[in-house]
Sequence to fold (729 residues):
Amino acid sequence: MEFLNALVAILNYVVVPATAYGAQLALGALGVTLIYGILRFSNFAHGDTMAFGTGITIIVTWGLQALGIGLGPLPTALLALPFGIAITAALVLATDRVVYRYYRKVKTAPVILTMVSVGVMFVMNGVTRLLIGVDEIQFADGERFVVAARAFKAATGLNEPLAIRTTQVITVVVAGLVVWALFWFLARTRTGKSMRAFSDNEDLALLSGINPNRVVAVTWIIAAALATTAGTLYGLDKSFKAFNYFQLLLPIFAAAIVGGLGNPLGAIAGGFVIAFSEVGVTYAWKKVATYLIPNWEAEGLMQLLSTEYKFAVSFAILIIVLLFKPTGLFKGKSV
Amino acid sequence: MKKLLLATAAAALTAGGAFAEDVKLGISLGFTGPLESMSPTMAQGAELAMKEATDSGKFMGGATVTPVRGDSTCVDAAAATATVERLITAEGVKGIVGGMCSGETTASLQNVAMPNGMVMISPSATSPALSTLDDNGLFFRTSPSDARQGQVMTEIIMEHGIKSVALTYTNNDYGKGLADSFAEAFTAAGGTVTINAAHEDGKADYAAEVGALASAGGDALVIAGYVDQGGSGILRGALDSGAFETFVFPDGMVGATLQDNFGAEVNGSFGQIPSSEGAGKDKFIEMATAAGFDGTSVYSSEAYDAAALIMLGMAAAGSTDPNVYKEKIMDVANAPGEPILPGELGKAFELIAAGQDIDYQGASSVELIGAGESSGTFREIEIKDGKIETVKYR
Fold:
């Protein structure tokens, strides 16, 4: 019984939230890593692309709700997601046409493209705020819990509650599906193969007749889809606030770099590494220890780092990885 | 408008035969930033008092009072300092209602107001640190210090039979000040604070914070944060994971957002906000409604009182020089004297002119103690059926 209580406490406060958060980071990092691998620059506008995509999805969700269309126990936002992706893809393609294309044509250095993306970030930032405002928006509807805390306690007779939100399950399931689809696309389809070829060796790819404009366009569309999906899942799970997505950029980049920039598999691993270390290192292990070690009451909180420092955890990992394995955990491009 | 004011002033001048001038008063509040939803009604409260004084025609021999608004942003000390600097040097104000949040108020007071000898009366900065600040007698506030709120919160929690709480606060001057004063009072009263952890506002994810709080345990969770910011994130996380069932909400958490977003989920939780009742408050709400804004909103009445105190101090001193009238503010605010309610500023000016003492009660039952801060009445609230209900005043 004591052992079960300890297990449930770890599940409830570490494993479940970190898994959902990790999946959201992984999706974001995939988009960043894809842009880096194929277009060869760090896209700082990715966080605000997520915010824009989510904003559009919320607006469409409101429209669907007004029409009375819903998904029953699932959030309506899932139905609105394709619309959000389409509009966001159109926006990033337009941005590429107006901004990035010029710099690509003059073959500018990647660091300049990165600075350009900072500019794009501020513009997108403003567009999102004009569109949907700065307030916090809750747009999750449908069933809130798969396993509710009180019901779990009553059903099992344990001291510790366990709660699993519908949005957490949806996040993990959708992230899994998206990752599977992406890998299938990159490995099996002609376009996917040409994208990988373009990423590995641009000159050789051009010589063998790959159309660069098509590769770039497809990359942007996929990045927009990933960003919108990640943003919407994140917003469903927590809440939408334009400013939070800008903050999310840091852990997303940390995840992408830890995993190895340009390596899709690395981005996913990086997302989970960052999420689990943020939650795990700052978790107070007092309760778990009290359950596991009989006849012993822990004195302190048994917390490695206080929660204010959770961002420091991502950066500590980032620095360690960069020092000892500059290409990331999985073999990516060195930064 | 300005012409009209000048004309009024000129008319008053000839009619009264006394010296009349246009007195500018600054209003430095966070019109943008985390408390932007509260600022407009606070400014309107202060402006209501200024309009009343002007309309009475009895202030400083018929002087007009013109409000000048400035954005203190609540969080950016540099921006607040620049705003107050502008109010003093460019606009030439004779007194300032503000600032809004504790950190920003401290910065603008020390960097600009004190070197320039300017009186600031804050309606809403509640950090205990401001009580002991060496302010040359230039700073007052019409809200109580959080040291007092810490004691009131302790009393309320103890009366609910709760002896151990987890505590989380927003990582700024307000949150830290309130959390420390509460932890001290609660421990002194025999309670246990299992954890005293900060949270950052506007962050993406609060799973780690909620995990730490849950592990530390306790019969209730005290959230000394903002309802429009991280406070809601912590509350949502704690509710969803089943970590706590009872919550204690200090002033920053009691707002419409709490009712709208959480409602019945926090039934049985309780808290307190600085607020008063009585004839003064009722009169103020009535006046505010007539002026077209909501007088019940947080710190609006305190802003009215802050502006009124500046003008009454000027009248009592017979001067608009901050270094002269700062001595009179405590006198007009406290007994002995004729009690003054909102809407009676004209009467107060008459009494002062006749050489009588006044005791300004105002909209928030003003009683200045210590270094010039409100002794403070608090409204104890409880969430019942998803609504914020008043239990009693203490």
